[in-house]
Amino acid sequence: MEYYRSKDLVIESIEPQDCKALSDGFAAQGWHKPQSQYEGYLHEQAQGLRQVLVARWQGEAAGYLTLRPQAKAGPFAGKGWPEIVDFNVLQKFQHKGIGTRLMACAEEEAAKVSRTVCLGVGLHNGYGPAQRMYIKRGYLFDGTGVWYQDKRLEEGAPCANDDELVLYLSKYLPKKEVRPICRQELTPGLFHHFDRFQPVEQAWRKEDGAWAIKDVCYTCRWPEERPQALCGLFDASLQEGGQVFGAFVDGRLKGFCVVAGRPTGSQRQYADVTHLYVSHDCRGMGLGSRLFQQAIGFGRALGAKKLYFSAHSAVGPMAFYTAMGCVEAQEYDPHHVRAEPCDCQLEYVL
């Protein structure tokens, strides 16, 4: 099963060949993780006892995460909440966003069966990066204190600061839905919970034929009348055979993507993605990737060969488009260039 795909990163279910690859990878950095451990995971996955998500960076096994249907021990046992267990990224692949994407995929899977996901984290400094990640992702301590060897540790009780000394955390999983938006939904109130906030400190600029990152400091905000204008733009696109996709979190619009119904370009090779935005408070939740996949599907249905994006040139948005596999457009759309001369004109081959 494939959970995620971008230009460099693919996250899929564990395969037999991953068992040796992961064991060898951790051995090379001095960790003892026998091949039999991953073979056991593979067997449990076949039985439905565990999902094993393996991250491959440019085709090489880079890390993994496992998800159990429910916690077997600790304060969450018996609650029926999916539990994230054994999460590692090889050191040479760290700081590439792989761990964040593995967590996002695991949470997506957990959300299919529960509104809560849980995990335990060790206390020694080897777990420092994981501790920071969990807090940043919104995990909360359960309040039962420290557990050792699957038992709650009473005040003053002896213990060792090893992998069995843990704190337990859980996270509420909002309901996420990506679907087409119909004309009847197009009212300014649809955008009431959408926050178009984009702080910019650096952006890409093309000078003398070469791209470079420049210090450019400003903040993007939409004026109060923007929702009304968007309703008009979306309605016009729908009437012309285009499609509007919305990403909803707990029923509130938190992202949207619009694909024009008429292919553009000198050979009608482009499906024009005129809008792709995610609310500031929901970035990092995978909504942008899911909207991008919807654009791919609709672009193919139109018979286009490529998607076209007039993309915000800030470093953050451009990192997203690059990760998705976009490159500089071979043919610039003059309408987009005139409207947003600082945008980066990109394409994605379907």
Number of domains: 2
- Beta fraction: 25-35%
Poorly predicted segments: none
Structural class given helices, strands, pairing? alpha+beta
- The CATH superfamily of the largest domain is known as Gcn5-related N-acetyltransferase (GNAT)
Give the name of the CATH architecture of the largest domain.
3-Layer(aba) Sandwich
General shape: globular
Helical content class: 25-40%
Number of strands: 19
**Which CATH first-tier class of the largest domain would you pick?**
Alpha Beta
Word description of this protein:
The chain is α+β, with helices and mostly antiparallel strands and about 350 residues long. The protein has 2 domains: about 1-175, Aminopeptidase (3-Layer(aba) Sandwich); about 175-350, Aminopeptidase (3-Layer(aba) Sandwich), CATH 3.40.630. The chain has 8 helices and 19 strands. It has helices at about 15-30, 35-45, 100-110, 130-135, 225-240, 285-300, 315-325, 335-340; strands at about 1-5, 10-15, 50-55, 60-70, 85-90, 115-120, 140, 145-150, 150, 165-170, 175-180, 200-205, 210-220, 245-250, 250-260, 270-280, 305-310, 325-330, 345-350. Strands 1, 2, 3, 4, 5, 6, 7, 8, 9 and 10 form a 10-stranded mixed β-sheet that branches. A 7-stranded mixed β-sheet has the order 11-14-15-16-17-19-18. A hairpin with a 2-residue loop joins strand 14 (about 245-250) and strand 15 (about 250-260). Helix 1 (about 15-30) runs antiparallel to helix 2 (about 35-45).
